[in-house]
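User: Could you write out the 3D structure of this protein bound to heme C? I've included everything you need below.
Assistant: Certainly. Input first, then the structure.
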Amino acid sequence: MRQISFAALLAAGAILLAAAVDPHVAIPARQMGMKQVGRTFKGINDQLHAAAPDAKALKEGTEQLDKLAKQVPGWFPAGSGPDSGVKTSAKASIWTEPADFHAKAVALAAATHALAEGAKHSGDPAVLTPLVRQVGGACKACHTTYKTQDS
Ligand code: HEC
């Protein structure tokens, strides 16, 4: 009995592993995550350009962006690249240059953390705009190298 259940566990594990790198799941999930990053970042920018920026909305938005940024490395499992046959703007070099790609994800998380820390203490655009620019630079640095620009 024990052996059978062990075999069943192994089989269940294999199914879980296969699901983890199913590009039909991983790629749309990543693109949804990135869309949420984009919407959240736009919300922050819109607040900073508003006549009267809402400090609470900025605090919440920047916290949300920081949480999302921490998830980015997990959105790129092996097997979810352009060779998978699923439409993606992610370049194959993400998986051949993993250290550099990871460094760019870390740079994003550092910038979003600094922004969220800033927004904890201030809703002043003069304080937050330079921090937002750092975040924007981190998005661009990764997209320029690792995202095809046709979409
Ligand atoms: C570490 C690399 C990296 C960083 C940093 C990064 N992105 Fe992306 N982003 C990508 C890649 C790769 C894709 C393409 C994903 C795909 O098509 O599978 C993408 C796609 C997107 C998309 C398109 C999603 C879709 O499919 O419609 C948006 C919007 C986006 N990113 C916004 C941002 C914003 C805003 C930031 C900064 C706050 C950011 N990204 C930071 C790598 C990154």
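The CA atoms of residues 64 and 148 lie 26 Å apart.
User: Perfect, thank you.
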